[in-house]
Amino acid sequence: MGLTIEPMTACIGALVSGIDLATAGPEDQVVLHDAWLKHKVLFFRDQDLTPAEHVRFAALWGELEVHPFAPGDSEHPEFVVIESTADAPYAAQMWHSDVTWRVEPSLGSILRARNVPPAGGDTCFSNAVAAYESLSPAWKERIDGLVAVHDFVKVFGERVDADKKAETRAKYPITEHPVVRTHPETGEKCIYTNGAFVSHVLGVSAEESKEILAHLERAISSPNVTCRFRWEPNSIAMWDNRCTQHFATSDFWPEYRRVERVTICGDRPA
Ligand code: SIN
What we know:
single chain; 270 residues; alpha+beta; 7-stranded mixed sheet; 3-stranded antiparallel sheet; 7 helices; 15 strands; globular; binds succinic acid
């Protein structure tokens, strides 16, 4: 059977079938890359990958990142496990793009569902280009040229031991990125602030910063620019971190959910 690409909405997301990611090669990557730029998030079903196959598929897209606050095991340091249990109901229930607190945040992420709760636990994705396009001309003008401050501490601060705080801060300093990013491959402009890692917008009052961030988050979370993915075991979502945001719904407590992520290194936003 050949590859089929079925759009999830006209704005974001497509379900890809007819491919086994365990054996995909560089020629498949070229085809998927075009679809990925167009739909921004690709979804796959029934991909029973081993951690090594997951890492190998991700490496077709570039160098892989080791997450300093959620490293994998010694064999696969790039392999991040995200688990929610009844005792530790962690979920990334905030609109965000991954690791924007890095000077060079990630290009994309490839997430595989291992254990899916019987109900809930979906992930929502937003097209940050369409969200930017939805802003009024006055708002576009208002945020043009603004810069926002990104900081890992907002989410991961508590995971750092007291005696490692200074060293960790030196390695991962507070970072500044444009509020409106231009995608390096498509040239599209998108909203590049997020509720998880951005502390404030520079050069405006604290009140104005809050107003700007809230307005941009409303644009990102509009149902008109988002899609929602219902996981099955061995489903995969692969998103472009440069122009999308995602939100993991936290509506399955006390059930167990486990997903596994490999993230591709990116470049400095401009
Ligand atoms: C993530 O933010 O990478 C995790 C998303 C999810 O758990 O669905």
